[in-house]
UniProtKB/TrEMBL annotation:
Gene3D superfamilies documented for this protein: YVTN repeat-like/Quinoprotein amine dehydrogenase (2.130.10.10)
GO terms of molecular function: oligogalacturonide lyase activity
Keyword Signal: yes
Signal in keyword set: yes
Record's signal peptide: 1-28
Name of a matching Pfam family: Pectate_lyase22
Record-given protein name: Oligogalacturonate lyase domain-containing protein
Domain annotation Oligogalacturonate lyase: ranges: 215-429
Alphabetical UniProt keywords: Signal
Domain of life: Bacteria
Any one of the GO BP annotations: pectin catabolic process
Amino acid sequence: MRTASLTQLRFAAALSLLGCAFVFNLSAQTYHDVKNPPKSWIDPDTGHRVTRLTDEPGSASMYFNVNGYSPDGHEMIYTTPDGVSVIDLKTLKTRSVVTGSIRVIMAGHKTPSVFYIKPEDHALYVTNFDTGVTRKLGTVPPRGSIATINADETQAAGTYDEVEAPKEQFGNNGPGGPRKPPTKVEQMHALDQAPNKGEMMVRRLAARIPLVVYTMDLSNGAVKPLFHSTDWIGHMLFSPTDPTLLMYCHEGPWQAVDRIWTIRTDGTANKLMHQRHMAMEIAGHEFWGADGNIYYDLQTPKGQDFFLATIDHTTEERTWYHMDRNEWSIHFNVNRDATLFTGDGGDPGQVAKAPDGEWIYLFHPEKLKNIGLADKDFISPGVFHAEKLVNMSKHNYKLEPNVSFSPDQKMVIFRSNMFGPTYVFGVEIEKAVK
């Protein structure tokens, strides 16, 4: 493993005294083992400034499709080994909000709040991170979990198993596998990819554990079943614009399931959102845009041809944006006005087997003009024009970076272990001025 030479360190120190912006141009490569990783640097391969937003080793931003931002866009929640903290995205000042062994769900869309479960009483709580006021909202059903809170913060949604899950299986239908009392703070989606994930998913799907998808009324804690199933249900996420619309997925190997579904909270309109047209076609890692549209990773077939697909929530018009193999990402995201996309790349061990995919990407979308036959049911074609933001060659992709745009659309925020422990980073979309 390469370390900084004495000459490089003296050079860096001299530049620091001069106040130069590119002091840590070699940070991810040269300063990989330092105990105090750099706070800010310009990536020499991309020209974009990267800032380490958190100071706590083991701190992490939220899962890519989970809201982590305050309604006014000024603050972001993040987890630490001790609890949940909030960072002011302008001043970068942080403060602790919740401490103790909890499972964090998300930040509220309506109020500056964090929702979480306390395993000690298996109950849902909310803490306002401006006032510090904490309320208990309801008790989670036995063998159950809560995955999401709706846009007006009136309902939660989750699943519970109707029977005890076999211990040799992956566990219950909540994300992250068997739900044991945590010894520290956990996110509802595990930070690291599960070992032998492919084998686990096959076993879990085959278990056919009976479950109930339900909602909880946050005014009184009342639980209401939506439907019963023996499918493995996960990735539940309420629309950020429609408090009655819930997206969920059929978990399992993507080529073996029809994954992406939506349902109304009154139990109606249970609908498959992507219909497969090819053997080994896969679609997944679905997420809502701020516009209420659905976006997801699409491969036709698996590991060969790559798209980011979109569904307009009002017209149901579909657009597929094509990308190269190296540009495929474990997770994608979109900015508030849907003019830019981002991806967190992947190492050669991921499904795309990309030889040069270890980057944080910015994608400029282009819809292609149709000069041929037209049909209202045709897919609108598009293409991504990729720009590299951060060299992630020193990142271990067992930790998924989980990119998102800052609400002011000036940064892409992600988690990384490029310096050893996990921290939260932000990379500026505009190139740095040297």
